[in-house]
Amino acid sequence: NFNTMKKIFTILGIAGVALMGAQNLIPNAGFETWADGKPDGWFATPAQIIQSTNPVHSGGFAVGLLAANSTSNIGAPDIAVVAGKTYVYSGWYYDNVSNGRFRYWGQWRTDAALLTETTLQGADYSTDAPQWVQFSVEAVAPASATIARLSLRTYKDADGSSGGLVYFDDILFQDKASMAVTDVAGFDK
């Protein structure tokens, strides 16, 4: 009926506006474009990553990062931040291997140096699961911060085994104030 359709289009319109309001500060966050064996805009050693078409969280591609004997890392470009603002760092990972694990990583920096604040660094390692799992952290940029340097890191497993691939997709870094919050239930009337 007409009223049901009206509600559906209203909800879809609100959701679209909410999604447009939140600007992701990471380019190529879904790993959809690649050149020279790595995702455009990301820093990585091509020998440690693969372009994945299965599994993917959304879109056509994800990135797989090898869990080597030492830390493997894929990093986003430096992101300008404003001290005192709250940022949300989140994304999706797929860790279904017994010979590797993941931890999100980030650094607050000035234009010239690393700060000691560790609020963008995950305390826990991933555990094996046969599905995509979201990570998310909310952190306030310290007083002298001008840059966030974000990365995804894989490590050998707790038992010392290595060689597995952990996959990543849809990585976000957003100013929390720009993220829209919509009470869709209120539009039911």
> What percent of residues are in strands?
25-35%
Please state the oligomeric state of the protein chains shown. single chain
Structural class: mainly beta
- In this structure, how is the largest beta sheet organized? 5 strands, antiparallel
Low-confidence stretches: 4-20, 182-189
Mass-distribution shape: globular
Q: How many DSSP helices?
A: 1
Order of helices and strands: HEEEEEEEEEEE
Give the N-terminus to C-terminus distance in angstroms: 15 Å
In which range does the helix fraction lie? 10-25%
Number of strands: 11
Query: Rg, please?
Result: 19 Å
Overall pLDDT level: 87
Strand order of the largest sheet: 3-4-11-7-9
Walk me through this protein's architecture.
The protein is mainly beta. It contains 1 helix and 11 strands, in the order αβββββββββββ. The chain has one helix at 2-21, and strands at 34-35, 38-39, 49-52, 62-66, 72-75, 79-80, 86-94, 101-109, 133-140, 147-155, 165-175. The strands form 3 sheets. A 5-stranded antiparallel beta sheet has the order 3-4-11-7-9, with no helix packed on it. The longest helix has 20 residues, at 2-21. Mean pLDDT is 87; it is low at 4-20 and 182-189.
Descriptors:
globular; mainly beta; four-stranded antiparallel beta sheet; 189 residues
Fold topology:
Elements: H1 2-21, E1 34-35, E2 38-39, E3 49-52, E4 62-66, E5 72-75, E6 79-80, E7 86-94, E8 101-109, E9 133-140, E10 147-155, E11 165-175
